[in-house]
Each structure stands twice: as C-alpha cells, then as structure tokens.
Write a structure and sequence with these properties.
The chain has one domain: Carbonic anhydrase (Beta-carbonic Anhydrase, Chain A). The protein is about 45% helix and about 15% strand. Strands 2-1-3-4-5 form a 5-stranded mixed sheet, sandwiched between helices. The two termini are about 25 Å apart. Keywords: Lyase, Metal-binding, Zinc. Its cofactor is Zn(2+).
C-alpha cells in the first residue's frame, strides 16, 4: 500500500477542497497527468478518494478538483442515482482499494432532478428507463417539498443529502468503514457558474 492510500478522510477532503479552490481561481496545477505518472500506474492503483457524481458533461470530476491519473476513483450516473451496480462499485473501492473518502457530487440545474420535480408537480412519469431514474430521485423531492423547498437547486441539495444517507444505510461495508473511522461519506453540491464545490452533508470525520 502506498502512502497515498493511508491518508485520513479529512486529508482526502482537504486535497479535493484545495484543488477546487485552484480551479475556481483559474490556477489549476493539473497534477499527475504526465507520461511518468501514466507509467507508474500500469501495475496497480491507489486512489485516495471516490467521487460518485452526476453524469452531466459540465461536472468533470478530475477537472473541477484539479487531480490527475490514479488520484480518484470515479463513478457517475444521471442524478447520482444509486443502484446495485453502483453500491458494488463503491464497496469495491472501500474493501479492495482502501479509499478513505466517498464524495457524492450533485450540481445545480440538474436535469434528472428537474425531471423528478416536474413529475412530482404534474403527477406524470416519463417513458422508458428515465422513469427508473425519476422513481429513485422522487423520495428526495418529496422530502424537500415536505420541508417547503420547491426550487430545483434546493431539491438537488436534498437529493445529495439523501444519497449519502442511503449509501450508508444500504451498505454494511460502507457503514462499517465509516463507524471504524477508515472512511467518510460526504455530500457536495457544485455551482456551475462559479465552479465552487460546497459541503452539505456527511458521515464520518472530515475536519
């Protein structure tokens, strides 16, 4: 195991936060993106964070957190919707790669959340497998509306919070890692205009 694989959840979040500050300020360092880094990763990998985010093309995880090859293990679905394959992938990152941080990444103006809010308001569901996405997001929309939050971006924040909670509730492997202090699960929202990532929820210590 490399030194990078042994960092704490707080140190992992600090690295991502510092990278995002550089990105917002236009001073990205583009680390670990050269030929030497590529060659060093041929035999194995030791990422120090998982980023589980929305598939939106404006949400390129390695760019907005200014990291490079081998730094982060990335999982993406529309609306960062969790299914069995996602949970299996996340559990792999914890049990096999010993990653100390899972970051759930949502963003404002999310199309999947927007579709879910529209379905909630109209009572009509979309066709095809988009319906499955909406059905998985609707519990977050219902919770947000119950608490008086009706705008899409407010619903995104609630969905990020619900996603982190569901992840820990659904996976004993992840929950045990959090309880033992080996891993933290945090929720972050991304502002498209500013490029800023903001912490909104979490399980485990990242301070």
């Amino acid at each position: 195991m490399t030194v990078e694989a042994k960092i704490t959840p707080a140190e992992a979040w600090n690295r991502l936060r510092e990278g995002n500050v550089r990105f917002v300020g236009g001073t990205s360092a583009h680390p670990n993106q050269d030929a030497n880094r590529r060659a060093s990763l041929v035999q194995d990998q030791h990422p120090w964070a998982v980023i589980f985010g929305c598939s939106d093309s404006r949400l390129a995880a390695e760019i907005i957190f200014d990291v490079g090859l081998g730094d982060v293990f990335v999982v993406r679905t529309a609306g960062h919707v969790i299914d069995d394959a996602v949970l299996g992938t996340l559990e792999y990152s914890i049990s096999m790669l010993n990653v100390p941080l899972i970051l759930v990444l949502g963003h404002d103006s999310c199309g999947a959340v927007t579709a879910s809010v529209e379905s909630f308001n109209s009572g009509e569901m979309p066709n095809g497998f988009v319906r499955d996405l909406v059905e998985r997001i609707l519990p977050s929309v219902i919770t947000a509306h119950r608490d008086g939050t009706t705008d899409v971006n407010g619903n995104v924040v609630e969905h990020v919070k619900q996603t982190t909670e569901r992840m820990v509730d659904s996976s004993k492997i992840i929950a045990d890692a959090v309880d033992e202090g080996r891993t933290a699960v945090i929720g972050v929202t991304y502002r498209l205009a500013e490029g800023r990532a903001e912490l909104v929820s979490g399980f485990g210590n990242v301070e």
